[in-house]
Design brief:
Length: about 525
């Protein structure tokens, strides 16, 4: 695509290629003096209509990143079915190339003090993004560029989230993404600021030793090593590495995020402490100068340094301690001496709710009054409390059953009949269950889609044959008594009872006999 115009950018030479797409050195078509790095996304998953629709909007939050150690995002869009984004052009080389080509001092036992300054600049860039609730998510040596004057700049900051692709395929390059991803990426745990700090530890490990902490032949092997294997300490490859720096890198590589440094600011503080020790031993460290964008923690962040009078701790000052003590005494006294309601008062408050026809009132009576009553006054009103508990439990069971019925509807009429027969068998109505299943087996015998239910119904009906319940006479007696009560209550009650037994011929006959039919 060299020479093509995509959005406002005219593409020049190709400068890089990866699994997501191709990077070009580009110039602004309206202002040739304005240079950018433009990445054109060519991966299949970045060419779908769904991705292209959301992509420009997902990239917009990156506009808030403005720091000397972060490559500035210049814009994104979609052109002829391809997504693209542009960022500040950084003249220089990436850290991976620097590591691969540099003549290392490590072999005779030296160590590059320049890594301390490099680590500080990366941490400053991470801190800037983290204060704006943006994670890098793909920190690796190829995303760390070093200019001719030694300035370190992070590229592709936050792009991984905006693109939001599934886990990457295996990259044979030892400095590819897989070697620098945190364990939580592979285990599905949420990524946090400490995830970027793990990747920082991997980058520093590579910068010091000349090799990443892990190498592998597949994504699965990388996953296993990141999650379960401890790397060799950097000092094994670099004996003169300061012990504090060795400990810091190993702390950044801890499997448990909670045991890594808490923030990029904490890493900066540790690096500055190490720098002081190194310089006191006579070694010169190139340390980056502070810039205006190295802001303190913003609203909502934990401050890096708590401001207080070190000469006298706050909690030792009388004007703080005495009011707090009096407040505590007052709270304890209020809790201890506040009059508690008696059992009779609690029950009186619960009674109107217990007698309500609304099940929500029964729940409130239990939670607000009867449970405290039972806890504070065991044995009092025990029968009444148990009755309300039973009502609440029965109503909850009914709601669950109705909800389950809505979620698990039968797919066919044959399945519905089979379930109906099963429900009748479960409540002991053997005769009705056998009639339903026998009718199902006969009526749906020729349906190929209902063979399963026909077989189950035929088997069930055969098994229930000859199992007339021994208490059938008692059951019909209870039905007769219910019919007499319904008859006394009125024709509507008797009609409702008759409808309930439409699928139970013996019981239906008893109800109709009470009606006089």
């Amino acid at each position: 695509m060299t020479g093509a115009t995509i959005g406002p950018w005219k593409l020049g030479d190709e400068v890089g290629r990866g699994p997501l797409g191709v990077v070009y050195r580009a110039t602004d078509a309206a202002d040739p003096g304005r240079v950018a790095a433009v990445k054109v996304l060519t991966a299949p998953l970045t060419c779908t209509p769904e991705f292209l629709l959301r992509f420009p909007g997902e990239m917009l939050p990156l506009q808030q990143l403005r720091h000397p150690n972060v490559a500035r995002f210049l814009g994104s869009g979609v052109h002829t079915g391809l997504g693209y984004y542009a960022s500040e052009w950084i003249d220089g080389t990436d850290l991976a190339a620097r590591i691969k080509t540099a003549k290392r001092e490590d072999s005779p036992g030296g160590w590059p003090t320049a890594v301390l300054g490099l680590a500080a600049e990366i941490a400053r860039g991470l801190k800037h993004g983290h204060h704006r609730n943006t994670l890098h998510r793909d920190l690796k040596p190829t995303n760390v560029r070093i200019t001719a004057d030694g300035t370190v700049t992070l590229t592709d900051f936050g792009v991984a989230k905006a693109i939001n692709l599934p886990p990457m395929s295996f990259d044979p390059d030892p400095f590819g993404s897989a070697g620098f991803l945190p364990p939580e990426y592979f285990t599905g745990r949420p990524l946090t600021r400490r995830s970027d700090l793990y990747s920082l530890g991997c980058v520093l490990y590579a910068a010091v030793t000349g090799r990443p902490p892990y190498t592998a032949g597949s994504v699965a092997e990388f996953m296993h090593k990141h999650c379960y294997v401890l790397p060799d300490r950097p000092s094994q490859f670099c004996p003169r590495l300061p012990p504090e720096f060795d400990d810091l890198i190993c702390g950044l590589l801890h499997k448990d995020p909670a045991r890594r440094p808490a923030s990029a600011a904490a890493v900066l503080e540790a690096l500055d402490h190490i720098r002081g020790k190194v310089e006191r031993k006579g070694e010169k460290v190139a340390w980056p100068a502070a810039v205006a964008a190295d802001e303190p923690a913003e609203a909502g962040d934990v401050p890096e340094v708590a401001e207080y009078d070190a000469s006298r701790p706050l909690m030792s000052r009388p004007w703080v301690v005495i009011p707090l003590f009096l407040l505590l005494v007052g709270v304890v006294a209020t809790i201890y001496f506040w009059p508690r309601p008696t059992a009779e008062e609690l029950f009186a408050r619960a009674r109107p709710l217990m007698e309500s026809s609304d099940p929500a009132d029964w729940e409130r009576a239990m939670n607000d009054y009867l449970d405290p009553l039972a806890s504070s006054f065991p044995g009092q009103y025990a029968d009444e409390i148990q009755a309300v508990k039973t009502k609440v439990r029965d109503h909850r069971g009914q709601r669950r059953a109705l909800a389950d019925g809505q979620k698990d509807r039968p797919a066919s009429e044959a399945e519905r009949l089979y379930r109906r027969g099963l429900a009748l068998a479960q409540v002991g109505d053997v005769a009705a269950a056998r009639r339903v299943w026998a009718g199902l087996a006969a009526g749906f015998a020729g349906s190929e889609s209902d063979v399963r239910w026909v077989k189950l119904a035929a088997t069930g009906a055969a098994e229930l044959a000859g199992r007339e319940p021994a208490n059938e006479e008692q059951r019909l007696g209870e039905v007769a008594a219910a019919a007499e009560r319904a008859k006394a209550a009125g024709s509507d009650a008797l009609d409702a009872l008759e409808q309930a037994y439409l699928d139970d011929p013996p019981a239906l006959a008893v109800v109709r006999k009470a009606r006089g039919k």
